[in-house]
Design a protein that fits this description.
Elements lengths: L50 E15 L4 E4 L6 E3 L4 E15 L4 H14 L3 E5 L20 E3 L4 E3 L3 E13 L6 E10 L3 H4 L4 E11 L11 H11 L1 E4 L16 H13 L5 E6 L6 H23 L6 E5 L12 H7 L1 E6 L1
Parallel strand pairs: 12-13
Antiparallel strand pairs: 1-4, 2-3, 4-10, 5-8, 6-7, 8-9, 9-10, 11-14, 12-14
Length: 345
């Protein structure tokens, strides 16, 4: 995830999930000092007197939830390692950084959020304060990315955070409409405080991830546009043909795209096509190769069965993830790679 804009002495990166603070809001409302455009998650109260200084919201994102000791971070490759592999999930993702001023410690912040989570049925998956191995945080702060924090007071750099004050926890809530995961990360600032901070305090990062499937939102390509693309480049990529994960049965919402392919073949009766299935790189290559071929075969079968297209004009093939059009390291890239292409013979 790319670094988010910060409007105070706070870092970015990191991720958390839902929580509620035990300490009530102070009578003095500090929300006027919040980062413009930011707001609390509707299920989450803030720690009393804290302000939002970092905010980022995505309707769909990939997320890795820490559930064990942090071991290392390779700055060249960006690869982080933990005692146990993190949980990988996808869904809506809200990240909020709170600044809690005064004598607040990272431990106090963490305990408030943990206790509130428990009262709402969350199960704690990891607590760094209960992990005797969670003592080496070298590289952890840099794993959040180099983040410069600009405010009206002064300029700060996240590397000023005190490694001894890092507190991490994650939690899970199971519910019929989808699971919710929470990742809490609290930090304190190292000495000299007067250099890096305008006031004392600690920071809490809150990532709220609600697991759900992505809604496909690619624009449907018309028969005319398909013809123009094939004439100019010899192929056209289609994103309007939908399948469930790891399955080859065409979903009903694919009909508009199939209609346009049939129209294309009807307009040009001499046109012959390779129908090529493409996948992302999630899973083993051999299984993706077989899946991509089955999906191409399903498209051919539908065109022959439902539209009366001569089967000799269509040849199904699958190439798994051998011909990506984007990186497979982001969900946006993987979505572009999952496609069906029509290639002129």
């Amino acid at each position: 995830m790319k670094p988010m804009t910060i409007a105070s002495s706070v870092p970015t990166g990191g991720r958390l999930l839902i929580f509620l603070a035990l300490i009530p809001l102070l009578s003095l409302d500090t929300r006027s000092a919040d980062l413009p455009g930011s707001q609390d998650h509707p299920l989450i109260k803030r720690f009393g007197g804290s302000e939002i200084v970092g905010y980022d919201s995505k309707q769909f994102d990939a997320f890795e939830l820490q559930t064990s000791t942090f071991l290392s971070n390779d700055l060249k490759t960006g690869k982080r390692t933990y005692a146990r592999p993190p949980l990988k999930m996808e869904g809506s993702h809200l990240q909020i950084w709170y600044e809690a001023a005064g004598q607040t410690s990272s431990t106090e912040l963490l305990r408030n959020y943990q206790n509130e989570l428990k009262t709402h049925g969350f199960e704690l998956l990891y607590d760094s304060t209960q992990d005797p191995q969670a003592t080496n945080w070298t590289g952890f702060l840099s794993s959040l990315g180099e983040v410069k924090i600009a405010t009206s007071r002064t300029h700060y750099v996240f590397s000023a955070a005190d490694k001894k004050g890092i507190r991490v926890s994650s939690a899970q809530l199971k519910r019929p409409q989808g699971e919710i995961y929470v990742y809490l990360r609290a930090v304190e600032w190292g000495a000299p405080r007067d250099v890096y901070k305008a006031r004392r305090g600690a920071y809490m990062a809150v990532d709220v991830v609600e697991v759900k499937s992505m809604v496909q939102n690619m624009v449907r390509v018309s028969a005319q546009e398909m013809s123009q693309a094939i004439q100019s480049s010899g192929k056209v990529a289609l994103y309007g043909i939908f399948f469930d994960t790891a399955k080859a049965e065409i979903k009903p919402e694919s009909k508009p795209a199939l209609d346009e392919i049939a129209k294309l073949l009807s307009i040009d009766s001499k046109l012959k096509l390779h129908v090529v299935g493409h996948t992302d790189n999630v899973g083993e290559f051999d299984s993706n190769l077989a899946l991509s071929k089955r999906r191409a075969e399903a498209v051919v079968a539908a065109l022959v069965r439902d539209y009366g297209i001569n089967a000799s004009r269509l040849t199904p093939n699958g190439v798994a993830y051998l011909a990506p059009v984007a990186v497979n390291t982001t969900e946006e890239g993987r979505a572009k790679n999952r496609r069906v292409e029509l290639v002129a013979k």
